[in-house]
Amino acid sequence: MKNKNNKALGPFFSLITDLPGGGKAFMGILLAVALYTVIGNTLIPESSFAHVPTYMVTLMGKYLCYALLALSVDLIWGYCGILSLGHGAFFSLGGYAMGMYLMRQIGDRGVYGNPELPDFMVFLNWQELPWYWSGFDNFFVAALMVMLVPGLLAFVFGWFAFRSRVTGVYFSIITQAMTYALLLAFFRNDMGFGGNNGLTDFKDLLGFDLRSDGMRLGLFVGSAVAVALGYLICAFITRSKFGRVLIAIRDAESRTRFTGYRVEFYKLSVFVISAVLAGIAGAFYVPQVGIINPSEFSPANSIEVVIWVAVGGRGTLWGAVLGAVLVNWGKSYFTGAFPEAWLYLLGGLFVCTTLFLPKGIVGTVPEWWAKIKLRLGRFKPDLIQTGKGDM
Amino acid sequence: MEMKVVAKPIAKESSILYLDGVSVSFDGFKALNDLSFVVQPGEMKAIIGPNGAGKTTMMDVITGKTRPDTGEVYFKDATDLTRLDEARIVNLGIGRKFQKPTVFESHTVFDNLELSLKGNKSPFATLFSKLSADDALKIEDTLNTIRLTDRKDWLAGNLSHGQKQWLEIGMLLMQDPELLLVDEPVAGMTDAETVETADLLRLIAKTRSVVVVEHDMEFVRSLQCKVIVLHEGHVLAEGSLDKVANDPEVIDVYLGR
User: Would you call B114 and A244 a contact, using CB atoms and an 8 Å cutoff?
Assistant: First the structure.
C-alpha cells in the first residue's frame, strides 16, 4: 500500500492521495474552513449572522500560525522523542526576520520621518543601519532569512547537543536556556532589534496596506496554505522510511544506533526542518498581530506549545493542529471572561491531559470508541494487534 | 606488530575478531583487565562468567560504545574497531543483540526487519527509499528463519518475550553480518523456546561467526561450541565445556558456587 504510485497525478497530488483517512479528512476540513472564512468575509453581507468579521479572520490566521508551530513541535517530539522547550525561539526569530522587512517598508513614514533608519535607531542616536539589517528591504532576502536564521541556529545548537548525545530532560532544559538567553539578548537596545519594545508600527507588506481587509484575508489564506503545506511535508516525512527511523529512535535509540543508523544525523535533520517550519509560522504571525518583541522568546511560550501538542495528541500531526486551535480559542475566550483564571486553567488542562488523555484527543478518542464497540460486540481484535488501523 | 604475533599464542591473521590486551576501567574499577581472545571465521564461541566478569563491557568495546584504555581490537585482521563509532561498526558487518530484547515496539514485525536491512542508512537516502522486490523477499526469508511469518503484521510490542528475542536476532540477520554478538539470548525464555533458540543459533553459525554470552549451562552445552570463561575482566579458561567445567580454577570462581 505504502508504495502505491500515483504517477498520473504527479508527485504533489500523490502527497495528498497517499494520506491516511484521517489526514485526508483534516485537509478537507482545513480547506472548508478557509473557503468559508473567505466567502463569509467577502460575499456574505455584514448584517447576516453567517458573516465572518475581519477581526475574526485575523484571529483565525493567528491560530493557524500557532498550528504550524505546533506541527513543528509534534514532528520532533511526537515522532522522534525530542522534547524541545525552546521552539518559541525559532518562531520568534522567523518573526523578527519578517518584522525587520516590515520595518524597512515603513520608510520615511515613521515618527521621526527618517528614510534610512527605523524610529528606535533614530531614538538611540544611531547614524547608520547596522550591517545585519542590510538586505532586509528586499522581501525575498527577508523570506530567505525567515527560514535560514532559525534553521542555522537549530543546526549549530543541534550539532553540539546531538553529537554529545544530550537527550531527554537535559535536552529540554538546554533548549529552555537557549530561548531564555535569546530573550535577554533581544531585550538589549545594543542588539539593534528595538530592545524591550521590539519591532512594531508596521505599515505595508509588499506594498499593500497591512490594515486593509484584503491584506488581512490574504495573510489568513497564506497562513492556511502554510499549514496545509507544512502538514503535507510532515506527513510525507513521517510516512517515509526516514519517519520510521525517527520512531525507532524515539522507542529504542541504542537499538537504532546498533542497526547502523547515525542517530545524531537523523535528529539533526528533523530538528532543522522543524525549526524552519517554526520560523515560517513566526513570519506569518508578525504581520497579523502587528508586533514582535522579546517576550515572544519567553520560556513559558515554548512550554505552552508543548501543551497544545499534548492536548491534541502527539505523534498524530493533525492532533497538534487541533490542540493549538482549541487551546488558543480557549485562551482567547477565558482571558477575556476570567483573566485571572487562565493560567490555572492551562495548568489544570495539562494535568488532566496527562492523567486522562495521555495520547491526547486524537490518540485517546478512537481508543474510547474501540472500547464502546467492544461492549457492543462488534469489535475485531486484529485491528489493534496488527496496527493496521488508521494512523 | 610481527613481534607481538610471535610472542602471543593467538594468531591475528585470518581471524574475524581479535582482541589483545584490552583493558577498560571505570573510576578505578577494572571492568576488563588484559583481555585477549580470537574468533575465527565461521566459528561459534560461548562466553560465560559470573556477574561483573566484564561480558557486557567486552561487547561495548567490540561495538564501539566504549573505548578501551589500552589494547587492540581488530575485525578481519585489518580494521581497528577502537577508532570507529557504532553505526560504522554495524555497517562493517558486526551485529549485536542486547541482553534485554530491544525491538521497535510501535512498528510491525515486518517494518522492524525492513529498518534493519543492509543498505544506505543516511537520512536523505531513507527519505526517498522504496522497498524493492528483492528486499521484500529477503524479509520473507528471515521471517521464515525466525518463525514469525504469521506475525509479520503484528506490532512488535505485542509479541511474547521469546518472539521479541527472535525478532531481534532476525533484525541482526537482515544486516547480513559476518559476526554476531548475542547477549543472553535465552534469558526469560521457556524451555521449548530455549531449545528452538539453540537450533536457530546453530543454523546461523553455519554461515557466520557467532559469539554468545550466556549464563544457562544447559543452553551452552546444547550449542556444542568452544567456551571462554571470563573472570574479573580476564580470560580464565578456554576450551570445550567439559574441559573448562573440570578446571579447578573455574570451579572455584564460578561453577562451584
Answer: yes
